[in-house]
Amino acid sequence: MAYLDHAATTPMLPESLDAYVTAARDIGNPSSLHAAGRSARRQVEESRERIAAVLGARPSEVIFTSGGTESDNLATKGIFFARRDADPRRNRLVASAVEHHAVLDSVDWLAARESAIADWLPVDSSCRVNPGDLAALIDEHGAEIAVISVQWANNEVGAVQPIAELAGLAAAAGIPFHTDAVQAVGQIPVDFAASGAAALTLTGHKLGGPVGVGALLLGRDVQATPLLHGGGQERDVRSGTLDTPGVVAFAVAVEAAVKAQHEYAARVSALRNDLVQRICAAIPDAIYNGDPVHRLPGNAHFSFPGCEGDALLLLLDANGIACSTGSACSAGVAQPSHVLMAMGADHDRARSSLRFTLGHTSTEAETDQLMAALPAAVERARRATAWKTPRP
Amino acid sequence: MSGGVDSAVAAARAREAGHDVTGVHLALSRNPQTYRTGARGCCTLEDSRDARRAADVIGIPFYVWDMAEQFHESVVDDFVNEYAAGRTPNPCLRCNEKIKFAAVLDRAIALGFDAVVTGHHARLGADGLLRRSVDLAKDQSYVLAVLTREQLDRAVFPLGDSTKAQVREEAAERGLAVADKPDSNDICFIADGDTKGFLADRLGSAPGDIVDGRTGAVLGQHDGAYAYTIGQRKGLDLRVPAPDGRPRYVLSITPKTNTVTVGPREDLAVDTVTATRPIWHSETTPVECEVQLRAHGEVVPATVAVEGGEFTARLGSPARGVAAGQAIVAYRPDPAGDIVLGSATITAGVAAEPVPSHSA
User: Fold this and answer.
1) Rounded-to-integer distance, Cα B149 and Cα A172, Å
2) Angle at which helices B164-173 and B5-16 cross, to 10°
3) Domain spans, chain B
4) H or E element, residue A264
5) CATH architecture, domain defined by B269-350
6) Is B42 one of the annotated active-site residues of the chain?
7) CATH topology of domain B206-266
8) Whole-prediction pTM value?
9) Is B188 one of the annotated active-site residues of the chain?
10) How far is A344 from chain B (nearest CA, A)?
11) Who contacts A33 (Cβ-Cβ below 8 Å, separation ≥6)?
12) CA angle B32–B37–B40, rounded 5-degree value
């Protein structure tokens, strides 16, 4: 099988899996007072320190969660509630139009349920936010903005946003800035303190750790109203028994991925660049979406005019190649990607997209396998588009 | 794969026969919640999950194909337009004609597949003839008779030799969780089963007269002729009883004058049926055969002639409740399963003996 869907989830690193299994054999709730509890607590706190150390955060700023979706929800809703409670004028949220649904739908929910006002930052045709747009919004509505959320890198087309600039504008206005860095950590350099962000989301299974564990890096002075109530385990912002083996394995993966990031990016981007060249040569009218420079190393996202992405996916799947249409599913029905639409693509181009994402296990044999199947699949998918032609 | 038991067993049998099978569930609504909820339809998230689980158990790939746009245009809009035109459509037939064995088939062929397998209860053997299922109560040849030779050549119906009970039993043996799932009987895109309400939402209120077919007297008012079906007796809500006290039936619907015409049961009887858009398989006409005039309806002997795009059936015995828009399907009785000779869309039924008629 050629696995070209690392942005969906990437295999666990062997050292992370080993750490998980070892920790899972131990007993102990980190909140218990006895020796077993203290041992579990020690493992959790060491993990917290390891993550903090490689991401430029303080250990107390690491809040363990169940993953990216929870962290995004906590950051957008939690910070919004806390800030509006402190000053009722703060009833606005700012987010980019290309956020993951975990942010997008949280903002929409706040608008619908809490009468919040949502301001969406547009992106250009390569999926990048213009800091000038944020500056203008802050000029106009600064006192009313509760929180700003812009992803570090886009999950579909891999565009990397000018986070330091955006976070700097927010900080200068005293507005907390959250960034969803789920796709960025381990792929490109990420330093929480240096970024100027108030909150940062990351998750285990996108960087070689387990599914179901992640973190929100939350600045010490940033208030967030809890969404999960209970034992208050994580700084009274997040409740729930800590998943010791998950946290341990997550920390091992974060540390390994961040330390290997430089060599990883060099190797994977070379493989990706080669793949992009081959695709462009084999299918000359293919459109390479996203920003060619400010881009995740493993991301190759294309539109194949005249094709439907899900037809291509089916044909490649039948050839043992795993990739993604990169769009959200409900009942398995592909909706045209909001990311492509925000980039100015029309409906047909959005529907014709396919995402290939490389990762730490990717090899040239896999990209060879793709190139052996892709041209014929594109040709066939183009013929299949004729099925839409209405019958008399 | 609708998520029901029939298509699951059909897929399993096709796989077992050595074919390279891929499961496809059709998403027929952009917003699945707007159509049927519950386990009896074919368009819900739950049905999609059931179909996916069946594909897992059978061991075949599974995809959801978005056919919402085509379904809406070819089936739902057609359904509403047909009622608006005073006809009685059959949406399942239309779905077979325009979606399953057209849009889906075309796409599948283009993607490299050879045929579409469905869980319909009908037989289609090596002789290429479409026949009734062995299970006459579940037979679906009526809604498949609209298929052309080319469509039938790309269709596979693995269930025609089994009864529904046998299919359920086999599903249980195969470990398919849908073995006990209730049958879907109603129109899948009308969530609450309220066809009248569904049409009223789309066609609005259009009050008109209900008139006596013999005297022309206005007997009452209706709120939209689309709510009536030929042969309907209940729900006429007529304040004036018939002089002889016998029940009255809907005889005809005239969209032009927005009139619903009613009369006694005997005035429903027709002995000639005319139909259009025939699909006819080889046999020369006129031919002595049997015709069926609605889904699960009675079968009557007839002489059928097909000529120049027109289909005429002279019935051996009068039929009642013949509604324009329904299909007329011709069968030749056969011990190995009655054979579909062809079909057409009913345009009119001609009364057995002309009744003293009021000219509108």
Assistant:
1) 73
2) 70
3) 5-180, 206-266, 269-350
4) helix A261-282
5) Beta Barrel (2.40)
6) no
7) SH3 type barrels. (2.30.30)
8) 0.87
9) yes
10) 22
11) none
12) 115
